[in-house]
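Me: Here is a favour to ask of a fellow structure person. Could you put it straight underneath, so I can go through it closely?

Assistant:
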Amino acid sequence: MPKKAKPAGSGKEEGPVPCKQMKVEAAGGPSALNFDSPSSLFESLISPIKTETFFKEFWEQKPLLIQRDDPALATYYGSLFKLTDLKSLCSRGMYYGRDVNVCRCVNGKKKVLNKDGKAHFLQLRKDFDQKRATIQLHQPQRFKDELWRIQEKLECYFGSLVGSNVYITPAGSQGLPPHYDDVEVFILQLEGEKHWRLYHPTVPLAREYSVEAEERIGRPVHEFMLKPGDLLYFPRGTIHQADTPAGLAHSTHVTISTYQNNSWGDFLLDTISGLVFDAAKEDVELRAGIPRQLLLQVESTTVATRRLSGFLRTLADRLEGTKEVLSSDMKKDFIMHRLPPYSAGDGAELSTPGGKLPRLDSVVRLQFKDHIVLTVLPDQDQS
């Protein structure tokens, strides 16, 4: 039975304490993720934490550290990406900026060491060894099918785009300064060890990425080492920095992120235009012109503010009585940019028609039902 690890400290000023963590003992047999369904994949990813516990206690609230003593899982994590994979990727054509970044944290600031054009492995390795630079690979699921497999299932589970970046940092170095992100972050430690420090957010559930100065963030509230097979989650807005300690091998981790621009505020902005459009077809007051020179005034008039607040109340009342909330752009963006269904091989069997042609009485079964989204569109005859 997994046991909860006790925090190293009593909350006094002697130093930071580790965030909530779980220790998992090796089960003896092979340990891998469960791809039977999106739900089973996520459950196995955060095991032994229960899904209900995760969303009740951690999601968008506080960090979660899962440390595992499981050689099989560590081996599986290590297979997701290695430093040596860069050599074959560079031979296929990798470009600075688009595919890979080279950087290092110097005096609290990010120093970018990118060259121009195509990235060559020997140059990347030279910067890595001699300049102690971190290599960041964008969206590695384009090249590593197992990451594609994981992220495609997570997109089905969250109903939101899921991206990733691989960070490879040499010993005695740090790639990025303290910062916070605008995404929910899951970090899988693949190779080596990395020293992490987390700080209280200055902007909880932040909507933008931002670098924070050391003097502004104070002391870390959580400090720990990630080892192969470990997983770390923290909400958007969590200030963090990480380094590979001197004397150790290089560190490789993959950051899997989701829920960018996926808040209630974003959804409100996305749907309110449709609400106004539909309401204006029935309410002549919404079709009436605004006062002359209203747009030329520095401050809104009392009359304009009162009218706007009244219209918003009307829209709220209208929304209470409708079953159809039309998404303008968020749903389209998700459908257009999400990963395709995972398929081993070249995917030809999915794109090449086969079998008998369907008839009117044929029964249709959806092969990838998690990739089907029904959308209600306005009646063109009534617009």
